[in-house]
Design goal:
- Helix content is about 60%, strand content about 0%.
- The protein is mostly helical.
- Helix 1 packs parallel to helix 9 (about 180-200) and helix 6 crosses helix 7.
- The termini are far apart.
Length: about 200
């Protein structure tokens, strides 16, 4: 970012990196502040979702969108070729694109759906841990209702590790890491190493 820039800039790669780095920042704190597991869970989930987007997206990125959003995006891009920038309507500019759900992205990655060049290989236990992290923990934190909720800590490092391992594998694929500069590649390596250090397998 240029000095004096008033904007924080993100791409799909920066989004995934920021989530991985948050895991690395918070993981060393959970022993003394167990409530911070919330942020490890949320950040690890976001890191994998971001990694799946990076791995699945090609060209314009419509391959990671819901079918309706993908069709609208394709139509808008076709129309944009025929119009000048000044002729674009405010409605076109403000149209919201909807990302495919986490579970669908995961299925696409595991199946090796094009444009993924090879499937994401997970053990049945890893897949179960990732799905549980998404369905139970992350979603309940994202939509927290007034309640008392106790989470057994014993299984959390294993679930987070499964999620980070999947994210790391996707981010290191040549068609993903090739879009990152050397600083981003180092941040990826450092964040994964730090997170794994403080989230030992049990």
């Amino acid at each position: 970012m240029a000095p004096g820039d008033d904007y924080v800039r993100f791409s799909e790669y920066e989004d995934a990196l920021a989530s991985l780095e948050l895991v690395a920042l918070v993981a060393p704190l959970v022993r003394d502040k167990p409530q911070y597991w919330k942020w490890v869970i949320v950040a690890a989930h976001d890191a994998l979702q971001g990694a799946m987007v990076c791995a699945c997206a090609v060209g314009t990125g419509s391959s990671v969108l819901e079918k309706k959003s993908a069709k609208k995006k394709s139509a808008k891009e076709k129309s944009a070729k025929e119009k000048s920038a000044k002729e674009k309507s405010a409605k076109e500019k403000s149209a919201k694109e909807k990302l495919a759900p986490f579970g669908r992205l995961l299925k696409w990655c595991i199946a090796g759906r094009k444009p993924i060049l090879e499937p994401l290989v997970l053990t049945p236990k890893q897949r179960k841990d990732i799905e549980r992290l998404h369905d139970h923990f992350r979603n309940d934190f994202a939509h927290f209702v007034p309640q008392g909720w106790g989470i057994e800590k014993a299984g959390l490092p294993r679930m987070i590790r499964a999620t980070l391992d999947a994210a790391g594998e996707l981010m290191h694929r040549y068609y993903v890491i090739g879009h990152m500069d050397r600083d981003q590649q180092k941040r990826l390596t450092d964040a994964l190493a730090t997170a794994r250090k403080y989230l030992p397998m049990t």
